[in-house]
Every structure is written in structure tokens, then in C-alpha cells.
Amino acid sequence: MDTILEYLESAIKNILSNKMRTALTMLGIIIGIASVIAALTIGNGMASYVSDEVNAIGGNVAEIYLDSSVAERGITDDDLKEIKENFPGLTGATYYEQDFGIAAGSRETVDVLLTAAGADYQYSTVTKLEKGQYFTDDQVEQGAKVCVLMENDAVHLFGTADAIGRTFELTIGGTSVELEVIGIRENWSEMITKMMEMEMESYTAMIEIPITTYGKAFNKDISESNSMEIYWGNDQSEDIIKSVVRFTENKLDLRGRDAVYYMSMSDVSSEVDSIMGAITAFISLVAAISLLVGGIGVMNIMLVTVTERTREIGIRKSIGARTRAIMIQFLAESAIISLMGGIVGILVGIAGAYVGCIVLDLKPVFDPSTIIGATLFSMMIGIFFGIYPARKAAKLKPIDALVRK
Q1: How does DSSP classify residue 207?
Q2: Are 119 and 135 in contact (CB under 8 A)?
Q3: Does the pLDDT at position 213 exceed 90?
Q4: Cα–Cα distance between 28 and 288 in angstroms, integer?
């Protein structure tokens, strides 16, 4: 134990005797460790944010599609009723149609992305109903001229979010109908709103109406559809999707014809997580290159140190110092330099991650294993890149070391 402490004490003395050179040597390690921690923390925060945003679009939702080139008919309202009867674990199921139109309110006229669906469409997103109510099965059956829209849409149309009971004119393909607002949904998140604005050339309201109203008012065939959405409770697993798919295949005589397929929000979330993970990994790889450069810097400085201390090494070996002792001393010195750089790099990386997340309006997601791994990795760099200089010092012959100027 005393011998090890002597090695460490000697290494620390040599490091402190060359403070500027040590600081410059540590700089590469500091930059590398800080970059990796900051990149992974910000990347994890971004992945968490995007995943939450994707999940906010729809929770336990899956879309089931038919291959129209294979299926002889689409999904009907009777099919939906039978699916809900056979799968009590479902919260609901509906097919829907989407169309573009223009809405003229008391304040302004806006473009519209219309969704016409059954009453179960209220479960399609996790955005809550802030005011009023969603249209009911009875209103769908009657083809009631009612609608649900978002707070932003109400403000654009009427100048206020308190729009329950107000009416506006919806026009699609030259045909107009007056709709009454019975429900107001909370707005999408800022990210999703911006994505919508980027996709649409102008402000576009998102309005939901009964599918029967859409069919009657605009003379549309809504008797069947090639797709439907299903919704299930948190007590159900996603296996229910496959069960509904098999039931649909049997119902439409499509079994074994690969004509029914699906996509769930968890699939979208997994894809997003995969993409964000790949981006974070790439950024971390680039940042890790600086660690390699820092390690080479440690090796270069240790080689210089060996050259400068040649006579010291010769004297120590001439009075009985073993090759192993010389090697351990220089390895300890390189490991301490790397460890110190690693600790400083971790602190700089954490601070940088906080600043980056504040600027990007993200929640920092620290992974303890990343910090521990960075610390161990910094020490490994010191040991790995210190081996060659240490071996070179340890193999010097006493006579050669003493006569060398």
C-alpha cells in the first residue's frame, strides 16, 4: 500500500510541477467528455420530448387498412358494431373521412381540414375536451349539424374561445352548411401546431363533424370505408389490434390474402425513438473523436516527460528500482491526468447540457450510466495511451539513461 501511495504522490508532484502543460493536456479529454455527456443528455431530452409529443397525438390508437385492390368491399357501420360487440376491451371503433373546405365565422374566414367520423372519434387523440361535449351516437344517427373544434380555431372564427352554441358556415366543393359548435378541444402542443403550419400554406382549422352529416350535407357516399380506427383502454395490451385484424380478415373473407394491415401510435413512437437514437449516437461518435485526440495528446506529453526525466529514470534504476515500478509510476501519472480531465469534463458537460436544454426548451435527461462510463473511459484513455511511454521509460537501461543529455 505504501508503495502505491508513493507512486501516486510522485505522479501528483510531477503533474503539479508542470501545471500549464498538464492543463493543456487535459483540455482534449475535457472537451471530449463534455461533448459526449452534453450530446447524450440533450439527445435524450429531445427524444423524450418528441416521444411525448407523438404520444400526445394519440394514445391507445391504431389504424387498420384494407388493400382496396384485393378487398371486394369496405368496412361498414354494421362491421364496426360487430367488432365492438366481439371485443369489449375496445373503447370504440370508427371509420372516418377527411376533406378540405372553408369556414366563415363572425370574425374571419379560414381554411378547414374536416374530419367526419362516428362518436368514438373523440378517443382518437389525448387532447381533452375543454368545453361543451362531443357529438353522440344519436346525433351521428340523426346527421345533426354540429361540430367540435379547437380553442385556436374558435378564436380565429369568432374572436373568443367561448364559442359553445355559436354557428358558422362550412363550404366544401361549392356546397355550404351551417354548423353549431357543441365542443371545444384543447389546442395541440406548440411543436405539433408548428408542424401543421409548415405543412399547410395558411392557417387551417381542424373541425370534426358526424360522418352522417358529412354524407347528407355534401352528398358523399359514407356507407363503407377502406380504413378504420380502433381505441382501447389502458388495461388492454396491443395484442387486441392483431385480434381485430384477424376478425376483420375473417369477416371480409380476406384471410391469408395479406390485405389487412395496421399501424399504431406506438409504432410511430418507436420509429421516432429509433431515428432520434441514431442521431444522438452519430453526434456522440463525432464528440468521441475528440476523446481520441485527447488520448493522443496524453501520450505525446508523456513521451516528452519520459525524455525530460531520462536521467531521473537512470538514477532510480541504478539504485534498484524495478522495471515494473517505473512503468506503474508513469501509468499512474497518465491515468491521473485523464481522470482529472474526465471529472472536469463531466462538470462542463452537465453545465453545457443544462444550458443547451434551456436554449432548446427541453427537459435534460441525465443517464447515470453515461456519467459513470465517461469517468471510466477517461481513465482507460489515460492508461491505454500511457502504456507506450511507460514501457519506453521502463525499458531504458541505466547506463544509457545516465549518459544521455
Answers
A1: E
A2: yes
A3: yes
A4: 10
Domain ranges (residues) in the chain: 2-53+271-403, 68-258
- Residue-wise pLDDT for 81-134, tens only, equals 999 999 998 999 999 999 999 999 999 999 999 999 999 999 887 678 889 999
Other CB atoms within a 10 A radius of the CB of residue 8 amount to: 16
Residue 207 has pLDDT above 80, yes or no: yes
CA neighbours closer than 13 Å in the CB half-sphere of residue 397: 3
> d(Cα 74, Cα 65) in Å, to the nearest integer?
10
Neighbours of 256 (CB within 10 A): 6
Residues in the chain, how many?
405
What is the end-to-end Cα distance of the chain in Å, rounded? Answer: 34
Grid-cell match 385556436, residue found: 152
Flag whether pLDDT at 8 surpasses 70: no
Which residue is associated with the grid cell 500500500? 1
Reply yes or no on whether the pLDDT at 185 is more than 70. Answer: yes
> Among candidates 325, 290, 140, which has minimal Cα distance to 214?
140
